[in-house]
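Project standup — Tuesday

K.O.: blocked on the structure for the chain from last sprint. Re-posting the sequence here as requested.
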Amino acid sequence: MKLSVRPRIQPEVNLTSLIDVVLLLLIFFMVSTSFVKQSKIAIRLPEADSSAPVEELPERIDILITESGTFLVNGRELINNRAETIRNALQKVSGGNNELPLTISADANARHQYVVTAMDVAGRLGFVTINIATVDDPTAEEEP
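H.V.: unblocked you, prediction finished:
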């Protein structure tokens, strides 16, 4: 007995009517949608009574050391270069915020001890972001 294999016919889905229905629903929703205008709320903001300026804390602290050993913290000269004076100035400028970045800039002819003293005081106060400012020598030639 010989069985013949019939070719399978692939089923087809006619999407034309489905697309028509979707487009009609889209048009219906577009036409029937009502646009509501949002009401505005009037807000009266409070005003400050006092005109006294609030002293802002700096975003960073700069220590400048001159050749003669004079310390300047954020542009203000310290009365001497003792560690206690530097500590008091840093506490006052930072307001107790040890997260501020601290940059130490020293004259090329300043004693190394002044820079070490500034770093030591900053480290003892808990500053962890301490930067040493350097300047590239424009007269130095690059090595090949």
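K.O.: great, moving the ticket to review. The domain at 61-132 is CATH 3.30.420.270 (Nucleotidyltransferase; domain 5). The longest strand covers residues 61-65.
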